[in-house]
Design a protein that fits this description.
Endonuclease III, domain 1, 188 residues, 9 helices, 53% helix, mainly alpha, 2% strand
Length: 188
């Protein structure tokens, strides 16, 4: 029997694994939440598969997404990253990652964890949408608008409402697996 998935997955094994094991699954680990926020910002203007294919290189280049280390990156490290052909070498995105690490640490200090802050927008329970088709999945919502505005106010960069909505989907705050997909919670 064939497993049914969201149609965006296609046949790429990397996409299949990401869809089946990560996308839409509630994530509460602060370091992983930071990683996904940075990767979603890196994806701006590119395809997600491009980012997935470079994910391990990003982890190596960005000290396994340790926000304390990244917050202290100086010009030498930024120049090193700009010369690393195994990652996305966009200076604005790299500088945003450094700024976002600083903002992330400030949120952790204020709220005790980034997890508590970000999940607080949905009262700590995932929003399950179960759209009928991919066409029913929005690029942004009032929730992503609100979170984007709050993140920007706190100094985050590359957190526009579309990037934020993709982040919310990726970390399971929003579950947009389509009806018929074996990961769709309303199927269960």
């Amino acid at each position: 029997m064939e497993i049914k998935r969201c149609s965006w997955v296609g046949s790429d094994p990397l996409y299949i694994e990401y869809h089946d094991r990560e996308w839409g699954k509630p994530l509460h680990d602060d370091r992983m939440l930071f990683e996904m926020l940075i990767l979603e910002g890196m994806q701006a203007g590119l395809s997600w598969i491009t980012v997935l294919r470079k994910r391990e290189s990003f982890r190596q280049a960005f000290d396994n997404f340790d926000p304390e280390k990244i917050a202290n990156y100086g010009e030498d490290k930024i120049a090193e990253l700009m010369g690393n052909s195994s990652i996305i070498r966009n200076e604005r995105k790299i500088r945003a990652a450094v700024q976002n690490a600083r903002a992330f640490l400030a949120v952790e200090k204020e709220f005790g964890s980034f997890d508590r802050f970000i999940w607080g927008f949905v009262d700590y329970a995932p929003m399950v949408n179960s759209p009928k088709t991919e066409k029913d999945v929005p690029a942004n919502t009032p929730l992503s608008d609100k979170i984007s505005k709050e993140l920007k106010k706190r100094g985050f960069k590359f957190v526009g409402t579309t990037i934020v909505y993709s982040f919310l989907q990726a970390v399971g705050i929003v579950n947009d697996h389509v009806q018929g997909c074996f990961c769709c919670l309303k199927n269960k």
